[in-house]
């Protein structure tokens, strides 16, 4: 590259000019790289946290293979045990084995998954917020397990007789259909049981207030109805109420916890 002198003749750059230009470009690139390093570091940490959570899920699922048979018996109890199920596909039983093992693996890995999420967000919190979040890790696992237990012990025994006797038609239940219905319901109800803990933490951070939850309770009821319609296999009032009643109770508990967090 060349420049033009006052006489109109091109003037060649010296090696010193090229060295200075290279130095300016290097400093500019270094500034841009330094400014992007925090983002790259966060992405790398997120990758590591996701990998550890996934590894915990894989290990827990593999461990659950040992007890898959016993777990199938437990989950099939609300419908009358294995003898009440009729398999019509070659791979159906294997699919059930994997589905049940993954559900148990997710329950067992829940503390590790929640801990990895907590560790990722901790650097941006104050010491007081960190203590609250760390205390919430065991409660998150306990709430998820409580949701799974309530589904198995109360919701399924109440919903199955109604669904199977509807219209008076004899129902031969396929294992794949039953376990897909049961495990999906357990999973989503288990996540729904995390609502009080999530609301309490958001209230502690100042994102929500108990007064707001009370003010917009009508919108919350509509949201619960939508969730119930998505989670339940039918939209009849009986099955929807089986989901909405626990959600309503959890919403009331969330208001109480938000009040406590707002005062703390």
Number of domains: 1
Q: Describe the sheet with the most strands.
A: 2 strands, antiparallel
Quickly give the structural class. Answer: mainly alpha
| Number of helical elements | 9
Unreliable stretches:
none
Helix content: over 70%
Lateral arrangement of strands in the main beta sheet: 1-2
The overall average pLDDT, rounded, is: 77
Strand content: under 5%
The shape is globular
* Overall number of strands: 2
Q: Distance between termini?
A: 67 Å
Elements, N to C (H/E): EEHHHHHHHHH
> Measured on Cα atoms, how large is the radius of gyration?
28 Å
Annotation keywords:
264 residues, mainly alpha, two-stranded antiparallel ribbon
Description:
- This protein has 264 residues and is mostly helical.
- It has one domain.
- Helices cover 78% and strands 2% of the residues.
- It contains nine helices and two strands.
- It has a two-stranded antiparallel ribbon.
- Strand 1 and strand 2 (10-12) form a beta hairpin.
- The longest helix is centred in the first third of the chain and has 50 residues, at 15-64.
- The radius of gyration is 28 Å and the shape is globular.
- It starts with a strand and ends with a helix.
């Amino acid at each position: 590259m060349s420049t033009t002198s006052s006489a109109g003749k091109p003037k060649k750059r010296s090696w010193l000019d090229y060295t200075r230009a290279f130095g300016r470009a290097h400093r500019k690139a270094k500034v841009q790289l330094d400014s992007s390093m925090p983002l790259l570091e966060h992405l790398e940490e997120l990758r590591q946290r996701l990998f550890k959570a996934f590894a915990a899920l894989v290990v827990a699922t593999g461990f659950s293979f040992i007890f898959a048979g016993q777990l199938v018996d437990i989950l099939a109890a609300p419908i009358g045990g294995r003898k009440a199920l009729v398999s019509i596909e070659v791979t159906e039983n294997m699919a059930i084995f994997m589905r049940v093992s993954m559900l148990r693996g997710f329950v067992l890995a829940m503390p590790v998954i929640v801990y990895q999420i907590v560790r990722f967000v901790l650097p941006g919190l104050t010491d007081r917020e960190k203590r609250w979040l760390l205390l919430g890790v065991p409660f998150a696992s306990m709430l998820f397990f409580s949701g799974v237990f309530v589904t198995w012990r109360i919701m399924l025994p109440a919903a199955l007789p109604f669904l199977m006797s509807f219209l008076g038609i004899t129902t031969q239940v396929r294992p794949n259909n039953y376990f897909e219905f049961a495990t999906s319901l357990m999973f989503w109800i288990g996540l729904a049981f995390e609502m009080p803990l999530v609301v309490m933490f958001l209230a502690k951070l100042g994102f929500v207030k108990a007064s707001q939850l009370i003010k917009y309770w009508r919108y919350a009821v509509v949201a619960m109805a939508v969730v119930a319609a998505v989670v339940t296999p039918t939209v009849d009032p009986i099955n929807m109420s089986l989901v909405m009643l626990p959600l309503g109770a959890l919403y009331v508990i969330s208001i109480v916890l938000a009040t406590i967090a707002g005062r703390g």
